[in-house]
Amino acid sequence: MIRQGHEVRADVTESCDVCIIGSGCGGASLAARLAERGRSVVVLEQGGYYTRADFDQRETNMLAKVDGGRGLDTSTDLSVALTYGNNVGGASVHYWADSYRTPADRLRLWEEQYGLKGHSEATLAPHFAQLEQDLHVHLADDTYANRMNQLIREGAEKLGWHVARVPQARKGCTRSGYCMLGCAYDAKQSQLVSYLPRMVNAGGRLYSDCRAERLVFEGSKVKALEASVLDRATGQPSGPKVRVSARVYVVAAGGFATPEFLLRQGLKERLPALGEHFFCNPSAMVHALYDEPIIQWRNIPAAWGVEEFRLARYDGPRYVEGGYLLMANQFHPGMLAAVLPGIGASHRELMMKLPNLGGAISWIDDAEDGRISLENGRRRVHVPLTGNNGLRLRDALRKQAKLLLTTGAREVLLGDVRDTRIQRLEDVDKAVDAVDLRPARNVFAAPHPGGGARMGADPKSSVVGFDHRVHGTDNLYVADPSVFPTAPSVDPSLSIMAFSFVAADVIQSSLR
Amino acid sequence: MLKMTRRRLLAAGLGGGSLLLVGSGLRWFTSGYQLQAGEVALGLSVKELCVVRALVEVFFPASGALPSGVALGVHQRIDEEVWAQPQALREDLQAALQLLEHGPLLVGFPGRLSSLDGPEREKAFARMLASDQDVVVQAAVALKQMAHLFYYGHPDTWKAIGYDGPWVPQPLPSESSARYQSLARGKPS
């Protein structure tokens, strides 16, 4: 059963085994797993319930429906655009469907450097296999590669960089290119078409437009969760309240909202790591003008990924290069216009060449901790673009520019407020060195948040234990990327769900 | 695309504090601002909507097959967006507009942004975009991005720029948009 906000006209009291806050990759996969094992599950989702019938492929309509902050949220100093879902299915509804297993080297790092237990490669392998089957994950074949992706592959091969097909969670893809605006064909395997229907079929209940607000504690045990039903048109409470009494509560509201929610419960004093160690894969976007049509908005966003620089290279303590993935970028005209440099005639001239515009995006594996905090009741997201993050961003800009020029781009645009443009490979280093990384001078995005409630043994330096349970509580858990010790160095969706499957096993055991 | 409270403006230092004095201090000077026929200000004040209109005029004049931004109602769409945002973000955007309106004085232009003629207004905005003051750049970038999203997100611009458009034929506006339009017509939804 999915009950939308406008259908709730009076206060509701729910009772269940497991109450889950959030219906994205973490919450939905956990909910399905537990419901199918016979547990009664109630999911509360702050955003609205939209399906393929609502996905009209228009940016200005869809941003308001499925994007957190209506697509306009940013880090505190405006340096980084925050991308997250605010809808049933969470960010899986607007994600690119890239579906990587957590790399073995990253899982080893988590074990060896952060002491992680219970989430080894061997433990997760059957979960990944199950996820890949459930979500129809397969490598993108050549029919998925639009011209920009073909160029990324060709350029990387010319440069001798390792480039590989990107695994995709799709079935019956029409190659329309509207993945980021919600799939109108139910081909992309978002939570809307995968684990949420399974959860509902197994008897799970979901309330959309329902904002979780307060956990009622009795000692170390959560006794109830209080929530408000929202008017979807305004985002304001419409009156009715939902109160859930459960044996177990799981926060799975995503990398931004989970730390925020736990901070609002007053847990920071007990758990100093709450909101700290935040990461988000700051993403640098570089544009390129070609002499041939690119039509970047059609077909899937990322068929080929440059994996050459996934792991950073150091010479002793000195950073050399890398620490990011490189891929083709995809924009529709509104968002592209928003991030292109310049105003007036110079900007208009670029937009008149829209079909010939392409570009690349890099996802930086964060090397500096960010932070989520509350200031006068308002969430603040701090993303440092200095230090090692700055080094990586600059190197990523450099590699993107070189890659795009190698693919035959007539001109490369770094997208900064100075409108830096590069025509020759030999000018790349000087141009990138001069990029001003102060706030708001560039357009960066934060697509993969996490780390704000990280996993560990010590309550002084972590928020949840290896069983996903919040330190010092009896029945409060976290199941989303907030628990990751660091960014996973690839798109996190499959990692999030695999961790949720581990959490499901733990919770199932605790309920026996 | 803006996060900037008054406290943050003050925290930006002497420059930010000065700008706050200029921006917020003049917030209450509202003379000389008038809505034009068909306009409503539900998210913004009348003054702020006029500032947005002034920006839209210089960003998007009619050009070849591209219609003007004002004719497409881009300024009105920004009012809708501000109306739909949470209170805190709404206040940030309003503070940004005050800053942009009075910012030209700080970058060498004798007058408010909306009172400058078109070419001077564009130059003043470009100078604010290139300012050394973070807070001025933040305000300029936020408004620039919003305006360009809504202009090129409008179907009447697509043919001119070579975008073949959505495969789903009918637009399906959000609930917030429907509510705003209803309020704008003076009818509760």
Structure characterization notes:
The complex is a heterodimer of chains A (512) and B (189). Chain A is built from twelve helices and 23 strands. With 512 residues, chain A is α/β, with parallel strands linked by helices. In chain A, the strands form five sheets. In chain A, strands 4, 6, 12, 13, 16, 17, 20, 21 and 22 form a nine-stranded mixed beta sheet that branches. In chain A, strands 1, 2, 3, 8, 9, 10, 11 and 23 form an eight-stranded mixed beta sheet that branches. Chain A has a two-stranded antiparallel ribbon with strand order 5-7. In chain A, β14 and β15 form a beta hairpin. The longest helix of chain A is centred in the last third of the chain and has 20 residues. The radius of gyration of chain A is 22 Å and the shape is globular. Chain A starts with a strand and ends with a helix. The model of chain A has no long low-confidence stretch (mean pLDDT 97). Chain B is an all-alpha fold and 189 residues long. Helices cover 55% and strands 0% of the residues of chain B. Chain B contains nine helices and no strands. In chain B, α4 packs across α7 and α5 crosses α7. The chains are: A alpha/beta (512), B mainly alpha (189).
Short description, anyone?
Chain A has 512 residues and is an alpha/beta fold.
What is the helix tally of chain B? Answer: 9
Overall radius of gyration of chain B: 17 Å
Q: How many strand elements of chain B?
A: 0
* Helix content range of chain B: 55-70%
Shape of chain B: globular
Features:
heterodimer; A: 512 residues; alpha/beta; 23 strands; B: 189 residues; 9 helices; disordered N terminus
Please describe the topology of this protein.
The complex is a heterodimer of chains A (512) and B (189).
Chain A: E1 2-3, E2 12-21, H1 25-36, E3 41-44, H2 59-66, E4 80-82, H3 104-114, H4 121-134, E5 137-139, H5 147-159, E6 163-165, E7 167-169, H6 195-201, E8 205-207, E9 210-218, E10 221-231, E11 236-251, H7 254-264, E12 283-289, E13 304-306, E14 313-315, E15 318-321, E16 324-328, H8 333-339, H9 344-351, E17 357-364, E18 371-375, E19 378-382, H10 387-406, E20 411-413, E21 421-422, H11 428-433, E22 444-446, E23 476-478, H12 493-511
Helix pairs in contact in A: 1-6, 1-12, 4-12, 5-10
Chain B: H1 6-11, H2 14-25, H3 46-59, H4 74-84, H5 87-102, H6 118-129, H7 134-152, H8 158-161, H9 175-184
Helix pairs in contact in B: 2-5, 3-4, 3-6, 3-7, 4-7, 5-7
